[in-house]
Amino acid sequence: MEKKTETDLSVQKQKWNLFIEEKKDFFDDFFYKNYLSLCKVMGVENEKIIVAVPSTYTKRILLEKRIDEQFKNNDYEVIFTVIKVWKEQKKQKTQMTNEEEFTFDNLVVAKFNSSVVEITKKIINKENIWSPFFLYSEPGLGKTHILRAVKNTVKNTSQKCYYIHANTFGSLLLNKFNQGSNAIEEFSNNFNDFDIIIFDDIQFLAKREKTNEVLFKIFSSAIDQKKQVIFSSDQHPDELNGFEKRLKSRFQNGIILKINYPGINAGIEIVKKKIENLIKNVSKIDLETIEYIAKNFKKDIRKIEGVIKRIAFYLLKNPEKEIDLESFKHLFADQKFVFNHDGVSIKTIKKIVAKFYNVSYNSLSSKGRKSIVVKARSVSMYLIRNLTNENYSTIALHFNAKTHSTVVNAIKKIKKQKELMPEYQNEIQHLKQLCQNN
Question: CA–CA separation, 402 vs 106, rounded Å?
Answer without folding.
Answer: 49
